[in-house]
């Protein structure tokens, strides 16, 4: 199928009384960093200056209720929901073409990983997009948008199924840490007029894979509203998870409350955090570490908790639509990731005045100013435990960081000006 993008390098045009129209696409609105970032963007837009059509492939997820009323949520198209639903189900519903495409994609990915001898790879997502997008219907075929935004990879659908004068694609991942099929992805990224990176470090990682696309990159950080986050942090929340800490070994009146928010996945390294927690406890530190989130690694994390005997020190607080009261309740916010693009939760914790500890990964320097508004610890169990233990003991440094957080501003709603510049001329 021919690419429906047109005039990718066309200059912004001026409009009369009708505001420019923006199209935004995302797979679903489950609880996650990219999804939360999109909600931040939608809340920051001035709807007297633009109209927004939001296309969510599958109308699922807690954040569906957070879509601003000014946004025009396009109807769900059933064939788009087949991209993520079980293959057996979509075969029973008659979507043989999508099912065959997804099966073919898995075979291609298996061959790719075998050839590369790669245990961990994200090439599958691009294979699925390449093998299924030709069978999907166009979106709002009779309309040409001023700007179309593909908010999450893979970007084939906005490239091929939407008409727009300009098209932008977002990067949320540190590409220096993941294995992808660059030959497959390059023509997709290259079809977009602008590629939006959420940090300088993310840009660097992306260019390590796609150096020819440097001229298309624009930096636009995840949009956060300090007022919204602080208001949400004051709302009531379920504290029943704290009961799980009762009766722990070495229990004191004032335990150290550590909090982590994130999807239970390999990059977030929640499984590894359990072993860091054990080393802290072995050093005699009364730690209560709770994690807000969900995901496929939950059995792995549960197994690690059982193997280490950390049931009374490391607790999974579950999937929460509003994580801010949980962050507000902790003493120290910890991001133990193996790698990140740019963790929204780190900024959110800083907005709430919490000392932040993150592991050292390629983009960590873009997350905080080391030793000033947070600290960076080694990216391994032993080093992370030592660094975290030192920080827990150093009350003076904690207070100095809190003082910095009180005078700094992390809200960045003005980032949306880059969108206005593109569509208003």
Automatic annotation (TrEMBL):
Recorded GO MF terms: glycosyltransferase activity
Lineage top rank: taxon: Bacteria
UniProt entry keywords in alphabetical sequence: Transferase
Pfam families noted in UniProt: Glycos_transf_1 (PF00534)
Ranges where the Glycosyl transferase family domain occurs: 253-403
InterPro entries: Glyco_trans_1 (IPR001296)
Name of the molecule in the record: Glycosyltransferase
